[in-house]
Amino acid sequence: MDAALKRSRSEEPAELQPPAREVEEKEEEEEERMEQGLQEEEEVDPRIQVGRGELEKLNQSTDDINRQETELEDARQKFRSVLVEATVKLDELVKKIGKAVEDSKPYWEARRVARQAQLEAQKATQDFQRATEVLRAAKETISLAEQRLLEDDKRQFDSAWQEMLNHATQRVMEAEQTKTRSELVHKETAARYNAAMGRMRQLEKKLKRAINKSK
Predict the structure, then answer these.
(1) What are the distances in angstroms from CA 47 to CA 39, 43, 151, 157?
(2) Where is the composition biased (Basic and acidic residues) (predicted)?
(3) How many CB atoms sit inside 10 A of residue 168's CB?
(4) Are 124 and 190 in contact (CB under 8 A)?
(5) Distance (Å, whole) CA 101 – CA 107
(6) Mean pLDDT in consecutive groups of 10 residues from the start of the chain, 215 residues
């Protein structure tokens, strides 16, 4: 019976195997599907990428703000420290020379007035010198015009020549008036300057000790 069973099994038809080409094609298709699946997994939604970029910018901005706030606080602490130190030194200085500064105030005020008077006197001197030069040039213009008129017998004293002389004469008159005013201002400012310097020198001698301590 066993022999018959074996014989019947050996007589059963063998299983049909698919052709080798079909197997290769199926394997290639399977590989393509797997690769496509991996690519789909690797691809990220563009919105997610944009969100990541904005998140990185936000984190960087937050770090910058924190750093700047720290620097600002450090600067404030340094400022408070310097302010306290300066206040202490100023208080000590006031205690040390406060009375001398108060006593020497008249001298420093007189010195300021003298300096202002000096500047005004210098300006008045420059104005006077300028007015003198303008007057000299105007007189020279008239003198040359009259000389040429006398040297040239053929030149006629017409209206144009008369107008030119009138204009030159007007300039001379204006220059003389300007010179007179500037000369008066120069004398006044010089007198104020001399008086201010005299006052300053008197106070300098009187308050010499307080002045030296207040410097």
Answers:
(1) 18, 12, 103, 99
(2) 1-12
(3) 19
(4) yes
(5) 10
(6) 46 48 63 59 51 74 87 91 87 74 87 94 92 89 77 61 80 89 92 94 88 76
